[in-house]
Amino acid sequence: MRDWERRLYLTAHPFAYPLLRGLARIGPVVRVPGVGVVVNDAAHARSVLLDGEAFRKDGPGSPGDLWTPILGPSVLLNMEGEAHRALRRKLTELFTPASTTALCARVLDAPLKDLAGRLERGEAVDLVDAMRVMAGAVICEVIGLPDIDEAACREMFERGERIVAMVKLRTRTLNPAQVARAREVLDPIGDIAARAFRRGDETTVMGRMRALGLSEEEAGGAAGAFFLTGTETVATLVPRLVALLHDTGELERVAADPSLLDPAIDEAMRVTTPTPVMLRSVHAETRIGAVTVRPGDRVLIATHNCCRALGPFALDGAPGKAELRRLWFGAGPHFCIGYPLALAEIRAVAETVLRHAPVRVVSRRAARGVLIPTYAELTIQKAA
Ligand code: HEM
To answer: Where does the secretion signal sit in this chain (predicted)?
Structure first.
């Protein structure tokens, strides 16, 4: 069986991917001119992520350089210190396992019934397209745009994808034309979010943000951040999970034993790492392993290398994997705030697909020109 994960990465990043994987063989921490200090090992990655004083998400070479011009200065993913802690504290209860499971059950009820019906009838279903619609529906509900039709969900997904695709692995800042294009998409999202915030309905995510004490501006910024970080990551993971289970011959085992689904999702996240790198800007002279870093240096944590060091997808064995402690969602103060929502969404769709096992992959294609490696198409069908 062809290594489709490698193929997805190579199709998305034909030059950067071989370079990134090659760096993992050079050492745990490597300075690469023009790129920054690359961290390839989980222990060093964690030490960087936990040290919010020396390694920050604002300053030169940080994610702030990329996102602040389009999202504003205070949207979690470009904040640090007390202001960041205060906003995270307010948002602790925003996405809980219970609230996100309920949200997905509600929003995905109709699309999942549709997916189940099509699989049941033996139709060939493009899981990539189905997932784009569903991830679009969930994120629209989150930002305050409920009950929109399939075409509008797909359109919202594509708008987000176009912004994310502006970023290449070496991109440090977006140019003015890119910023203008991104703002054309994000400004209306801010307006939608603001209206939902003002309505204050506490059964909605935006309404809850108001109840949790966020200002309208903070809530609008958070909505933009959720839209950019919480759509493609989830949508791309599900087809990759199903393909990995299929290709490793594990699909029917997981379908027969629901207790294996969460470990399978974790393992698929480890192998795929939907966020393959994390960036930090150095604010104080210090060391990462044997490498000295100075203010102004850029640190690129190669999450993908850290996670792939433990080998290819395998449901059993490798107790060391637990030590990664879900590094694919980050670590420390910036640990992914949306992870309960991501898991609820992934579980809901995966359970529906697995209920129709055995499922076979009819055809598939790797996507070009994307930041997050993914399938452009993954068509599945209930095996006769
Ligand atoms: C498979 C799905 C997802 C993956 C793999 C993922 C991964 C990550 C990672 C690695 C980080 C930390 C980045 C860093 O420290 O530099 C992060 C942060 C974040 N994620 Fe996710 N994410 C996912 C889904 C979501 C969803 C569904 C949402 C929200 C709706 C979301 C919202 C955020 C936000 C707002 C942050 C910034 C948090 C902060 O800086 O305090 N993510 N995510």
So the answer is: none
Residue having the nearest C-alpha atom to atom 18 of ligand 1: 336
Q: What is the pLDDT of residue 182?
A: 93
Q: Decide: helix, strand or coil at residue 299.
A: strand
**Would you say the CB of residue 281 lies under 6 angstroms from ligand 1?**
no
Determine the residue type at 126.
D
Total domains in the chain come to: 1
Predicted pLDDT at 2: 79
- Closest C-alpha residue for ligand 1 atom 21: 336
Q: Amino acid identity, residue 315? A: L
Answer whether 229 contacts ligand 1 (Cβ < 6 A).
Answer: yes
CA-279 nearest atom, ligand 1: 16
Cα separation, 213 vs 264, whole angstroms: 37
Q: What is the pLDDT of residues 251-263, one digit of tens each?
A: 999 999 999 999 9
What are the residues whose beta carbons fall under 8 Å from the beta carbon of 332, sequence distance 6 or more?
46, 49, 50, 51, 52
Domain that holds residue 302: 4-382
Q: What is the CATH number of the domain that holds 196?
A: 1.10.630.10
User: Does the beta carbon of 235 sit less than 6 angstroms from any atom of ligand 1?
Assistant: no
